[in-house]
Structures are given as C-alpha cells and as structure tokens.
Amino acid sequence: MAELTISPETVCYIIVKAREFDVKVDPTDPESGSNPADDQEVDILEDLADDPTFEEVSNALAGLNEDETLDLVALTWIGRGDYTSEDWDEARDQAREIPLKDRPRYLLGTPLLGDFLEEGLSELGLSCEDYEIERL
C-alpha cells in the first residue's frame, strides 16, 4: 500500500488551486479599463501575468519538500493511468528522474492536474470530501 509523505489536505488544496488555474482563458480585452461591476467579473477567468491563482498554486508547489513533490508526481501519473496504486514505489522512483527544481513547473504544465491528483488519491482510497471546503 502506498504511504504518502504529503498530507492529503495539502493535495486537496493543490487540487482546488490547480482547477482554478486550469479554467483560465486568454484575455479578450486586456486594455478594457472596465471595473468588475461593469464586466460581471469575467476578468477573473482571464490568464494575466499577475494572476494570483497562479501565484498561489506555484507557491504551494515550491514550498514542498522533495518527498512531497515525488508524491504529487506519482499521484498525477496514477490518476492519469500511467501507473496503478500497486506501482506506487515504481512511480515515485520514476518521478526522481525529474529534477527537484523542475517538478513544480512539470506539474503546473500538466493539463487537468487537479483531476489527475484527485483520481490518484481515489486510487489510494483517499478523498478530498474528508476535508472541509472552507479549510481549502
């Protein structure tokens, strides 16, 4: 059985932030000058250079230690179907091939990261439902 070094609550936080980041779209009118009340706050979905959502997920990933980043990469791969939960140790060993400093960028560059992490947790018998949404 897989033994996580990262807390499931931290994984769930990253899932929420990764999903927020995944829904970002290219700016439609970067020079609009409107305010949120005028545009029904749709600008929040635009992928801008100073995006606080990117900063939140990026900082969360950068603050993890080596073992925690290995867990996230392995969970991503299990959730994507590259490995099974029985292959946990093999997936973590393979994740070591990605240098520690590159793992946050690798994870952020993975489309549907939140979905893959959630599926990986599910494969290990864990769920984000165990954590209050207000705490995430």
List keywords for this structure.
136 residues; mainly alpha; 6 helices
Task: Describe the fold and architecture.
With 136 residues, the protein is an all-alpha fold. It has one domain. It is built from six helices and no strands. The protein has helices spanning 8-22, 52-62, 66-80, 88-95, 103-108, 113-123. Helix 1 packs antiparallel against helix 2 (52-62) and helix 3 (66-80) packs across helix 6 (113-123). The two termini are 26 Å apart. Mean pLDDT is 82; it is low at 40-49.
In a few lines, what is going on in this structure?
The chain is an all-alpha fold and 136 residues long. It is built from six helices and no strands.
Rg, rounded, reads 16 Å
Distance between the termini: 26 Å
SSE pattern? HHHHHH
Structural class: mainly alpha
Overall pLDDT, averaged? 82
Strand content: under 5%
Work out the helicity level. Answer: 40-55%
Low-confidence stretches: 40-49
Domain module count: 1
Could you describe the largest sheet, including whether it forms a barrel?
Answer: none
**Number of separate helices:** 6
What is the number of E strands? 0
Task: Please state the overall shape, judged from the principal axes of the Cα atoms.
Answer: globular
